[in-house]
Design a protein that fits this description.
325 residues, alpha+beta, Pseudouridine synthase, Archaeosine Trna-guanine Transglycosylase, Chain: A, domain 4, 3 domains, five-stranded mixed β-sheet, 6 helices, 17 strands, disordered N terminus
């Protein structure tokens, strides 16, 4: 489920002003109890960088991979609006809740249940592939321009239409008592809370999502993620570069080319250039040296490319803080 944060929105309290933007990608291991916006705001303060956005909301209950883009690299967000995600979590059976997770109020009587692993394995097959799913009432889906969660909080009726989602993998890993653990690989727009709720409906006992951990988004996985405490401690030592994702690992589906200094100067000004690319790809990542991603360029013909997304500004006008690699 992707709800991209408006990356130009500023905090309501002052942040120490940096002299120039920091261009970087940072993967946070989001703790439970914080919203994705809370994490963005915390990182803004730690790194003294105003331009920070995230690549897909995690519910406050959830933990795990939350990719942040900073500085000019916020312009890459458009490439991640349909990113695949991987989750691990626990479903509790016996009652449903109004939020479809453990933070909500029960909406059905609590019952003592013992879940059969074989039965869950059988039902899990109904949640694979392209299916129709109704989003939770406490979600950002809009009803006549109003987010559903705002109506739900006022205890107003929320009627959301089913949407088609793709669940590429959904495996029940274990079952004990009234809980079952799972792993899922899903396309953008899929609500794991709805899967838990609907599974409980099919069993006739009610269910909700007890815990959820996102282990991957697009090319980013949990092995690259850092806690907020580590980011704060590392930044306090004066250099957070070691925490950032190397630019050459971004958008792996796009080939990389390295521009000369002369071509780099033209790209900074949005000029069409000739690049040494033999991949035949429609778009390429353009680097200055090994570690500075300066543009995403689109092929016009042959080796002639136009830098439609310029990530490096004119050095004479505004320097950038690119991570050192």
């Amino acid at each position: 489920m992707i709800l991209n944060y408006p990356i130009t929105k500023l905090l309501n309290y002052p942040i120490p002003e940096a002299n120039f933007p920091m261009n970087a990608v940072l993967i946070i291991d989001k703790p439970s109890g914080m919203t994705s916006h809370d994490v963005v705001n915390r990182v803004r303060r730690i790194l003294q960088e105003r331009s920070v956005g995230h690549l897909g909301t995690l519910d406050p209950l959830a933990t795990g991979v939350l990719p942040l883009v900073m500085g000019n690299l916020t312009r890459l967000a458009q490439f991640y609006t349909s990113s695949e995600k991987i989750y691990e979590g626990v479903i509790r059976f016996g009652f449903a809740t109004d939020t479809y997770d453990a933070q909500g109020e029960p909406t059905s009587p609590m019952s003592q249940v013992t879940i059969s692993l074989d039965e869950l394995h059988s039902l899990a097959g109904q949640f694979r592939g392209h299916i129709q799913q109704i989003p939770p009432p406490f979600s950002a889906k809009k009803i006549q321009g109003v987010p559903a969660y705002k109506l739900a909080r006022k205890q107003k009726e929320v009627r959301l239409d089913p949407v088609q989602v793709e669940i590429k993998e959904f495996d029940i890993l274990s079952a004990e008592g009234d809980c079952a653990s799972f792993r899922a690989r899903v396309a953008s727009g899929t609500y794991m809370r709805s899967i838990a709720h609907d599974l409980g409906q099919k069993l006739g006992c009610g269910a909700h999502l007890q815990s959820l951990r996102r282990t991957a988004v697009a090319e980013f996985d949990i092995s690259q993620a850092h806690t907020l405490e580590r980011v704060e401690a590392t930044a306090a030592q004066g250099d957070a570069n070691e925490l950032f994702v190397h630019p050459r690992r971004l958008l792996p589906e796009l080939p990389s080319v390295t521009a000369t200094e002369e071509v780099t100067a033209l790209i900074r000004n949005g000029r069409t250039v000739t690049l040494p690319d033999l991949s035949k790809a429609r778009q390429v990542k353009v680097f200055r040296g090994q570690g500075e991603l300066i543009a995403i360029a689109t092929r016009i013909a042959g080796t002639l490319f136009h830098p439609g997304i310029v990530l490096a500004v004119d050095a004479a006008r505004e320097p950038t803080r690119s991570a050192s690699f």
